[in-house]
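Reopening: structure tokens for the pyridoxal-5'-phosphate complex, inputs below.
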Amino acid sequence: MIEFKNQLINDFPEYLFNEINHLKLNARQNGRDIIDLGYGNPDLPSHPLVVEKLIEAAQIKKNHKYSVSKGIFGLRKAVAEKYMRNYNLAIDPNKNIVNTIGSKEGLTHLLLSVLNIGDNIVVQDPSYPIHHYAPLVARANTIKIDSLIADDFLNELENELKRSVIKAVLVSFPHNPTTQTVNQEFFDRLVNLAKLYKFLIINDFAYSDIFFENELPPSLLTSDPKLEYSVELYSLTKGYSMAGWRVGFAIGNESAISSLTKLKSYIDYGTFQPIQIASAVALNELDNYPTELSLIYKERREIVTTTLTGLNFSVQESNATMFVWARLPKNFSDSYNFSKELLNEANVAVSPGVGFGERGEGFIRLALVENKNRIRQAMKNLIKFFDNYV
Ligand SMILES: Cc1ncc(COP(=O)(O)O)c(C=O)c1O
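Re-run output (same inputs, fresh job):
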């Protein structure tokens, strides 16, 4: 058979979560009740007001036509106003914001728009898998820096900048999978480095709206209000539980945004217009919804951290995200085998840390995407698993 394959895509490393997913599906087909804390797919619903607006807008015929690929003005304006309310930043919806089909698509096409083949880009390790793969799509050269401790990442970045010419630095805070947050001074330092070495900073801000204890995670753009060196990726997926709607934004440096807007104008016609209209309603009218969702994640987090700490995991403290990141207890080091055993013996799916990069080895990530009762059950299963083990 003749093979029609692009070499680059063919050479992509195998997605490490695939085997765990496969085992999970098999177990379910065999009638086992798997509690899935592996896949970060929010279980909480989108707000009813947004769903109603979608239905209403879908009934209007003119909304069935192609939309605009950069997003309708009302939606981009709603994001600009949200940034004004949250961060006191004045952002021009025409020059500095483009709507993307979620932040994942936004990131991939952003890198294609700003990097040339062979350019160096720094990414965090561990990190969300697309951070490792999007640079490959752009045929860039990836330099991975340990990000288990955010300040160490910055120190190592400083060393790397003395050695290599870096075109872009991709970070994500609040961070998936490590759940770390940073303060504004972290971004100030990063922007100062960008000014000195002339690189673009991209902050994947997917968890901007899921935070606890009233600690609003800082925006990179506050440290660079003239938007000279920065692009932030904002998304409705987590904060508004709108994962399937695919609504994200790239916000920041005018030339990067216009390059991405141009590329997207060739590739797509924008998200279905009723989705854009309903998303603007979410942004304009539902500031409290992310806060409500955050409370739910906080309660779930407490159940998981209490159990894991009791089992001698070392849990990363955090005031944000919908995950728990924990170092395996002594005597365990292989996160992949541990996750497989947990699935087989305790019917609980988690993500092995190594799936997020080699520096994630020795850790697991639990996504808080089942209800409290199911999470309590998962923790009971875990305790039993360890009882049997010892
Ligand atoms: C860091 C990070 N970025 C992006 C995404 C995907 O977001 P979106 O649905 O906006 O593409 C996720 C989802 O888990 C994520 O963890």
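The pocket of pyridoxal-5'-phosphate is lined by residues 40, 102-104, 128, 172, 176, 204, 206, 235, 237, 243, 248 (CB under 6 Å). The longest strand covers residues 120-125. Marking as resolved unless the reporter disagrees.
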